């Protein structure tokens, strides 16, 4: 089974894991890589030394390729960019910003660079800067999002660049994966479905919130601050949206979300914490090993596409 992305990354299936903050640590990354996809460690807002340890732990669990996602608003982004090179990581994905200043350094070290983008303009800029592929992430995704849907974004990015496009946002099964390929993608990035993987260390309460979620159960907070974030509706999002409507300023709103993702992921506080998840959470109903998720998703897509993926 080959696509431009499996060839580029030396993986078996064209499925990459989202670099989810607090969620994407080495157990999940190694699980997805061992399943034949590309696992990722999400550096999010963590210190550089935490990222180094995670990489070393992942190497103990898998000899397959895995990557690191660097969230560019992290104050330690420069140091993490260097850790990626020092530890011999093969693939980096980036989020929530423009990774141009690290591109030359990563390319020189032979790291494959895959920026996550939410617009055609950013995709073109990344291609010009030497990116090996881009993830086109629609606003159905969980966490920090852009404003265009996957259905509209993926074909427009695919037409605008000649590097491979990986579709993300709203994909959790073989139907979504097949649809992404029809839109011009060469792989998919999966977040929400991997949150409920057996290997994923998020608190059981967090997993149950996703299993229980229905189609309309997510909300987007932070539209007014320029940092929109999608998560499952709860007391925190209701309070946040109420304050936003009343014109609360950035600092007041920040107080509500400071440490709130950790609260949900680590402590299982699904009332006051932030339960980041995509709109597709309503489709996610079972806790399964990463290997089962990857294989069933691929088999369904392959069948729907009439083995187009065999190419
Ligand atoms: O980055 C993500 N998703 C994330 S990051 C994150 S950590 C966080 N937690 C709380 C608040 C904010 C962040 C949780 N989820 N997805 C990739 C993504 N990147 N979506 C949108 C973008 C993006 C946005 C702006 C990419 C580039 C960009 O360019 C800005 C510029 O400099 O032009």
Q: Mind sketching the topology for me?
A:
Elements: H1 4-9, E1 15-17, H2 26-34, E2 39-42, H3 48-61, E3 66-71, H4 77-86, E4 91-95, H5 100-108, E5 112-117, H6 120-128, E6 134-137, E7 143-144, H7 150-160, E8 165-168, H8 174-182, E9 187-190, H9 192-195, H10 204-212, E10 218-221, E11 229-232, H11 235-245, H12 250-257, H13 260-265, H14 290-304
Parallel strand pairs: 1-9, 2-3, 3-4, 4-5, 5-6, 6-8, 8-9
Antiparallel strand pairs: 7-11, 10-11
Helix pairs in contact: 2-3, 3-4, 8-14
The protein binds ligand TUI.
What does this structure look like?
With 311 residues, the protein is an alpha/beta fold. The protein contains 14 helices and 11 strands. An 8-stranded parallel sheet has the order 1-9-8-6-5-4-3-2. It starts with a helix and ends in a 7-residue tail after the last helix. 52% of the residues are buried.
Strand coverage percent: 5-15%
Order of helices and strands: HEHEHEHEHEHEEHEHEHHEEHHHH
Gap from first CA to last CA: 7 Å
Helix-residue proportion: 40-55%
Largest sheet: 8 strands, parallel
Q: What is the residue-mean pLDDT, rounded to a whole number?
A: 96
DSSP strand count: 11
């Amino acid at each position: 089974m080959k696509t431009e992305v499996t060839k580029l990354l030396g993986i078996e299936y064209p499925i990459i894991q989202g670099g989810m903050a607090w969620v994407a640590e080495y157990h999940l990354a190694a699980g997805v890589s061992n399943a034949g996809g590309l696992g990722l460690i999400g550096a999010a807002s963590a210190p550089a030394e935490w990222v180094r340890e995670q990489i070393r732990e992942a190497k103990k669990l898998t000899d397959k390729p895995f990557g690191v996602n660097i969230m560019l608003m992290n104050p330690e982004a420069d140091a993490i960019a260097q850790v990626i090179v020092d530890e011999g990581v093969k693939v980096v994905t980036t989020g929530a910003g423009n990774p141009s200043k690290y591109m030359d350094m990563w390319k020189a070290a032979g790291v494959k660079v895959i920026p996550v983008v939410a617009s055609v303009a950013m995709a073109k800029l990344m291609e010009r800067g030497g990116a090996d592929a881009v993830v086109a992430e629609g606003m159905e995704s969980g966490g920090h999002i852009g404003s265009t849907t996957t259905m509209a974004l993926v074909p427009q990015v695919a037409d605008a660049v000649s590097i491979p496009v990986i579709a993300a946002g709203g994909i959790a099964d073989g139907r979504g994966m097949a649809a992404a390929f029809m839109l011009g993608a060469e792989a998919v990035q999966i977040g929400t479905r991997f949150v409920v993987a057996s290997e994923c260390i998020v608190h059981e309460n967090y997993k149950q919130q996703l299993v229980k979620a229905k189609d309309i159960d997510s909300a987007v907070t932070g539209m007014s601050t320029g940092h929109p974030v999608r998560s499952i509706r709860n007391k925190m999002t209701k309070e946040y949206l109420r304050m936003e409507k009343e014109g609360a300023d950035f600092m007041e709103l920040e107080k509500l979300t400071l440490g709130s993702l950790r609260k949900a992921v680590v402590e299982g506080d699904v009332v006051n914490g932030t339960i980041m998840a995509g709109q597709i959470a309503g489709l996610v109903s079972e806790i399964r090993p990463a290997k089962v998720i990857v294989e069933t998703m691929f088999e369904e897509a392959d069948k729907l596409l009439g083995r187009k993926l065999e190419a």
